[in-house]
């Protein structure tokens, strides 16, 4: 006969971890990914607000696509951490301390500068994701699938944005 939870008291369930609990390595790797996604979203908004120069509108809108992916990624990985009984830390001081993204200048930036800076920021984010990938895959293949999904999205954005400065091969 199956046991019913109906009669269980709150105190019986309060500190129970049911299901897979992320080991420390997985927790730390996912925290690193969350931090970089938060930083990428913030950096993207800084670029979006202060962009000037040729092709402003297209780049302005494209950077917002990156911000949307970054925010979605931060939320997806933070919630995945919670599902695995780990606690994400997205506080400002933690993001500043732990991010692998390069710093971003204050004030207006030209579209050319923005392209270069955004490509570097996205590549830092995807670099971190690739750096932790094998360990994440070993600890939890389902979570590695999430890394794949966001790598594809961000690397496409690197191509879109980076193409602004390329010349056709002849």
From TrEMBL:
GO terms of molecular function: ferric iron binding; oxidoreductase activity, acting on metal ions
Pfam family, any one: Ferritin
PROSITE patterns, alphabetized: DPS_1 (PS00818)
SUPFAM superfamilies, per the entry: Ferritin-like
Domain of life according to the entry: Bacteria
Domain Ferritin/DPS: 29-166
Identification of the protein by name: DNA starvation/stationary phase protection protein
Family: Belongs to the Dps family.
